[in-house]
Write a structure and sequence with these properties.
Rossmann fold; disordered N terminus; alpha/beta; Pyruvate dehydrogenase (Acetyl-transferring) E1 component subunit alpha
Length: about 375
């Protein structure tokens, strides 16, 4: 007879269904977004970090402008701009250590570039050339995800696997406010909290899911409040304040690394440009609304803080802008070169071991290309 079979033996009893698993109070976000720039907290910010954030944000603004121009020149098929959101993009990349992983959405090419991905490679998918465009393992940046929110479960899986293996790795997953309406978002948060996976979720709330305003997506007090339903902390931060986003993300990454589990962070920002070059934003928002947000520009906020504290002068501003122009010129020159494409690459990265059907398709295409080549050669004889 086992202990469990004995009369009066131990019977584990779960708590009543109505009883909270955790105290919700510490998980709730603050009523107002956290800010650093322009507040007394800015005096404690590291001057070198502020200069670094400023340089990357200025480069990011120029990167966005150049990539948008490339769409008009036919060099990019599509570009989802992050003009106005550069602070969150930059902070996300800089908050991670080299061994950590970044999981971007299709709008987060700037974060990938700040992480170290070559700008041309970061734009390759949007150019329509081939697959990811870069080696995810080189910089620990997962492939850009065009389906909404599918990168979030991927981030949770990697983070959970890393912890099981004993690897000191944190995953940071980026998503827009529209992505929070997808099932993948909720499934990822639930798994992450139950497993206490070392993952941080950054929601860039830029006001619109294409043309749908946030108020038509959710009635929650904030997107950060959704964290409580899954048993993780929610943080609300001014997404245009690079110092604030970097601080909040840094704390969440440290917490995850130390075994504290996941955090959901909502960065309040604004999409200055249209959803993509294929979108007409004037059909669903007024110009004065956009101009109001231009007054809260992330470049201006950092530049004002640095100049008022004597940490940046005209020469420093000019040097940063010149560096951004040099980056844009290099990007423009290399993107204006027609890539050399091999049609057989269509079959090179689909399966580790090609299936019989894939091999058959590959052989058919190879035969067709050879026949076309022979026809051209015959015509020129």
């Amino acid at each position: 007879m086992t202990v469990m079979e004995q009369r009066g033996g131990y019977r584990p009893t779960p708590p009543p269904a109505w009883q909270p698993r955790t105290d919700p109070a510490p998980l709730l976000p603050d009523a107002e977004p956290y800010r650093v720039l322009g507040t007394p907290a800015a005096a404690k910010a590291d001057p070198e970090l502020l200069r670094r954030l400023y340089a990357h944000v200025v480069r990011g603004r120029r990167y966005n402008a150049q990539a948008t121009a490339l769409t008009k020149q036919g060099r990019l098929a599509v570009y989802p701009s992050t003009t106005g959101q550069e602070a969150s993009e930059v902070a996300a990349a800089l908050a991670l250590q080299e061994r950590d992983w970044l999981f971007p959405s299709y709008r987060d090419t700037l974060a990938a570039v700040v992480r170290g991905v070559d700008p041309v490679q970061a734009l390759t998918l949007l150019r329509g050339d081939r697959h990811t465009g870069y080696d995810p393992y080189e910089h620990r940046v997962a492939p850009l995800c065009t389906p909404l929110a599918t990168q979030l479960p991927h981030a949770v899986g990697l983070a959970h696997a890393a912890r099981l293996k004993g690897d000191d790795v944190v995953a940071l997953a980026m998503v827009g406010d529209g992505g929070t309406s997808e099932g993948d978002f909720h499934e990822a948060l639930n798994f992450a909290a139950v497993w206490q996976a070392p993952v941080v979720f950054l929601v860039q709330n830029n006001g619109f899911a294409i043309s749908v305003p946030l108020a038509k997506q959710t009635a929650a007090p904030s997107l950060a409040h959704k964290a409580v339903g899954y048993g993780m902390p929610g943080r609300l931060v001014d997404g245009n304040d690079a110092a604030a986003v970097h601080e909040v993300l840094g704390e969440a990454v440290d917490r995850a690394r130390q075994g504290g589990g996941p955090t959901l962070i909502e960065a309040i920002t604004y999409r200055i440009d249209a959803h993509t070059n294929a979108d007409d934003a004037t059909r669903y928002r007024a110009a004065d609304e956009v101009e109001t947000w231009r007054a809260h520009d992330p470049v201006v906020l950092l530049e004002r803080e640095l100049t008022e504290r004597g940490l940046l002068d005209e020469d420093g501003i000019r040097a940063v802008r010149d560096d951004a122009e040099a980056m844009a010129a290099d990007l423009r020159e290399r993107m204006n070169q027609d890539p050399v494409l091999d049609p057989m690459d269509l079959f090179a990265h689909v399966y580790a071991e090609p299936t019989p059907q894939l091999r058959e398709q590959r052989d058919l295409l190879r035969a067709e290309l050879a026949a076309e080549h022979d026809d051209r050669e015959g015509t020129h004889r």
